[in-house]
Amino acid sequence: MRDQNETGDRRRSRATRSAAATIKPEGVVDKPKGAQKGSRKLASEPAEDLAATLSRKIVGQPEATRLIVPYVQMFQAGLAPEGRPVGVFLLLGPTGTGKTKTVEALADTLHGSEKNMVKIDCGEFQLEHEVAKLIGAPPGYLGHRETQPMLTQQRLNASTSERSELSLVLFDEIEKAAPSLTRLLLGVLDKGVLRLGDNTSVNFEKSLVFLTSNLGSREMLREIHPDFGFQSAGSNNRADLTGKLRSIGMVAVRKRFSPEFINRVDSIITYQPLSTEALALILDQQIADLQNHVNTRLGERSFTLEVPAETRQFLLDHGTSQEYGARELKRTIHRFLTQPLATLVATNQVPPGGSVMAAVAESRDALAITARRDGGVVVKPASPPTVLLVDDNRDLLRFLERLMADAGWNLVTAESAAEAKLAFAQHKPDAVLLDYMLPDGNGVEVGVEFLRAVPGMLVIVMTGTILPQEEEALCEEHNFPVLRKPFLASDLMNQIRSRLAAVSGASLSA
Ligand SMILES: Nc1ncnc2c1ncn2[C@@H]1O[C@H](COP(=O)(O)OP(=O)(O)O)[C@@H](O)[C@H]1O
Ligand SMILES: [Mg+2]
């Protein structure tokens, strides 16, 4: 392959050779004749939409969209040549710049989910014998019936959707593949067919094949910034830089792969290191995704997430780097934002319809996350509740103890009414869980006593027998929930959670 701008010409010659259609480099089709590979026309996604959607999802890599979309269009128009994949792309460039993300974004756009593709991690096929996992062992090999090939026609078909028959096949990090895998690939790229160990075959005529590689990316980074982080190259030398990076990539690829292999690639796309602006945009998108997730998952209990500029910078500082691009961004958001947020939600500290402010903490090594009510009133960050458990059944005590510790709650236990009263005075619990039959008394009566001492206190009664009418009436009068053993642990936890939330909701500072 001489230069990637000439790929359209090569495509044209191939297409002509297969007596199908003549296609201009932009993917515009002239003189369509018959003999086209059948394809269902995709009604939902006109080409401009596809390009717009893709370039929104793949930030700062306009070349990717520009070079890939025409091949999708060609397939949708039913004009892809026969006897080979619809398109073969080699994606080059530094880590974390969107190579894998490109195929995910395409799968999401074409089929409705990022997972609708067949991804082969070439790192898993570094040794010759491992390649059998991919295509299955040939008959005659011991146990060949047990080796289910990973790459089958069935899997390929299953990765498509109602919306489109075009399958997406990703060979990730091909530089790691064993030579025999590269040889198999050669056949796929050339004829669009892969023969499996059991002599059946997989047809790639309705597939886009993507090969990604980090080859040359180290040299590329050195070219851009010997010692400086990612930056946007000035607009006038951006084109210059693109050309330079491409030739660095090509040199590395030529060193590793044979000319016939490279010749079968339709387009080589060189991914650019992400500029500061691109990284900021990716962060904005991921925060918007998180908000969407909150809205859809929490429904009526959802809230508005406020992430000021300083916090965004904090996340960028921790989640992006020259070496890994945007790769660590998701994990960073998860660690500093999503996880603390989940704790806040799980302990009912976020009032529905309110907002949550994620500010940089004073210590500057974490985020301080606080909930506000609708009117901007700050919710007191409630400390985890303290629960007093009173039961002489040690197994149950121990079980509940573990459960509550997992929920992050403080737990005090007592095995008798006398112990309970001591613990109550000493620990001032937020909730008390009392067994009805205590060795030295009646749990319901103890509960009434506690409630008298602390009005509004949450008391839950547990019982293994039917409560006598008198006790039943007491519970009703004082609004004690009664849990009949055996009960589900989750029921108990939810009881406490929802009742405590109602109480803490009343104690918001005005
Ligand atoms: N250009 C980009 N546009 C949007 N997100 C990106 C981009 N580059 C990287 N990311 C983010 O970083 C993660 C890792 O990127 P990935 O595409 O796997 O990198 P690689 O180029 O090493 O294949 C993605 O899942 C995505 O969240
Ligand atoms: Mg990748």
How would you describe this structure to a colleague?
- With 510 residues, the chain is of the alpha/beta class.
- The protein folds into three domains: 48-266, 3-Layer(aba) Sandwich (Rossmann fold), CATH 3.40.50; 277-372, Orthogonal Bundle (Helicase, Ruva Protein, domain 3); 386-506, Response regulator (Rossmann fold), CATH 3.40.50.2300.
- Helices cover 44% and strands 16% of the residues.
- The chain has 18 helices and 19 strands.
- It has helices at residues 7-17, 47-57, 62-76, 99-111, 131-135, 153-158, 179-191, 217-224, 235-256, 259-263, 276-298, 309-319, 329-346, 394-406, 417-427, 443-453, 469-478, 489-506, and strands spanning 22-23, 29-30, 87-92, 118-121, 167-172, 193-195, 201-203, 207-213, 267-270, 304-306, 355-360, 367-372, 386-390, 410-414, 431-435, 437-438, 441-442, 458-463, 482-484.
- A five-stranded parallel β-sheet has the order 4-5-8-3-9. A five-stranded parallel β-sheet has the order 14-13-15-18-19, with helices on both faces. Strands 10-11-12 form a three-stranded mixed β-sheet.
- It is elongated, with a radius of gyration of 31 Å.
- The structure holds adenosine-5'-diphosphate (ADP) and magnesium ion (MG).
- The site of adenosine-5'-diphosphate (ADP) has 18 residues, from helix 4 and helix 13.
- Residues 99-100, 172, 212 line the site of magnesium ion.
